[in-house]
Every structure is written in C-alpha cells, then in structure tokens.
Protein: Putative ABC transporter ATP-binding protein YxlF
Organism: Faecalibacterium prausnitzii
Amino acid sequence: MIEVSHLTKKYGSRLAVDDISFTVEDGVIYGLLGPNGAGKSTIMNILTGYLAATEGQVTVAGHPLPEEADAAKACVGYLPEQPPLYPEMTVAEYLDFAAELKGVKKADRPAQVQSAAHRTGLEEVLPRLIRSLSKGYRQRVGVAQALLGSPQLIILDEPTVGLDPAQVIELHRLIRELGRTHTVILSSHILSEVKAVCDKALILSQGHLAAVVDLAAEERDLEELFLELTAPEETSDKKED
Ligand SMILES: Nc1ncnc2c1ncn2[C@@H]1O[C@H](COP(=O)(O)OP(=O)(O)OP(=O)(O)O)[C@@H](O)[C@H]1O
C-alpha cells in the first residue's frame, strides 16, 4: 500500500525526518509511535500529499508523490489531529459537504454518507448540530469524513487526544473494526493505544526510524523497547559503558 524510500524532510535547516525507509502492507494496522517532535506528523503530512519531501521516494497505492498526488490523495482518508469540523452544521450536512469536497458525485453522496455514518455508529446523530456533540462523537464524525470517497488507506493523527476513557475504548474498537476492511496508520505517543489497536509499530526517534515491530511476534515488552530506542543519546551511551 505504501512504499517509503530514503525519505528526508527539512524545515529550513531543521532536519525533521532523516533518511527513513519502510513499507506498509495492505490490510495491516500500523502505529506510528514516537516522542514529541519525532517526526510523526511530518511523515503523515507527506503521505497524505500535504507536504513535499525534501528527498526520497514515496508511493501510495502505486502512485508516486508528488507526480500523481491527486490519484494518491483519492486513496487516502485522513483524520488530522484537529479535525476541520463546522460546529454550526448538522452531522449529515457536514458529511455531505465533506463528500462533495472529495469529489463524490451528488447522486452517490447520500449512500456514502449513510455508509460512513453506519460504520462509525453515527446514524442516530445525523440530524444533530456538531456543536452539540461530545468530543468522542466529534472524533467519530472526523473518522466518518475520512471514510468518504471509499479510500483504501485511513490515516489517523493522534485520534484519541482529549477523549475520556470510555470514548477512547469506543474509538479503539472502531479503529480495529476499520482495520478489517482498510489499511490503517495511526499516530500516537501512547504505547498502550498502539498495543491495543495495531498489528505493527514504526518507532520513530528524533527523525529516525528506530524499529519496525510486529506486535504479535515481539517477545520484548513494548515499553522497554520504546524507552531503549528513544532514549536521548547521552543515556544510551551510559548504558553501553
Ligand atoms: N513547520 C515547521 N517548521 C519548522 N520546524 C517544524 C515544522 N513542523 C515541525 N517542525 C519540527 O520538526 C520536528 C518533527 O515535528 P513533527 O510535528 O513531525 O513531530 P511529531 O512526532 O508529530 O511531534 P508531536 O507528537 O509533538 O506532534 C520537530 O522538531 C518540530 O519542531
């Protein structure tokens, strides 16, 4: 689904992503895990075609970026960390509008909205104003808009930030359910979230890809592995001494 080869991103002189290569297979839920500033959002913004790489090759569903950006974007549903919701719209109006923006034909929009609402458990709140919804339901609206246009790949940027524990559990359930039909990339700095939801984890540290972990096969504890791989350099040096 995704091939990333020697990806580097600089913001001016700041190196945010440093020579990263990885593959995301179809139908797998990947966690993009790393401390603050590790490069997660930068990578997601490149995969979704919103940012250009400084160097390296990225292919999404067979479409190289940036050459085939429109075709690649059509294969991706994205939930940014701050979903662009319009509080004065009803859920139904917003999803219809989001489908229009994604180029879904008018005749297909009601069925697409219905299907996205069904997948995300929003059918009952379709007539409600977004501003009247809880944060958990708003996040589901964000996930529903990501499903419009039938993308094969869903990218979720820290989707559970600010949710209460019950809402987190519900959203985890929804993401696992989506993983049965989609390839999913979920960015997080919560280890328990990645363990609960993902099949594999890409661990980032200071712009580097420190490890690709198959969570079912990995015998070592994810917390231990994460701390070791993302420790600041001075600490790692001391350990080796
Ligand atoms: N627009 C920008 N201009 C300059 N530097 C940036 C910009 N965006 C990100 N950076 C820097 O690039 C590095 C990677 O940032 P990025 O936001 O990708 O990390 P992240 O892992 O998503 O962090 P967080 O978990 O805090 O969201 C950081 O050092 C950050 O300060």
The first strand starts at residue 2 and ends at 11. Residues 11, 14, 16, 34, 36-42, 189 surround adenosine-5'-triphosphate (CB under 6 Å). The chain has a mean pLDDT of 91. Residues 81-150 form one domain.
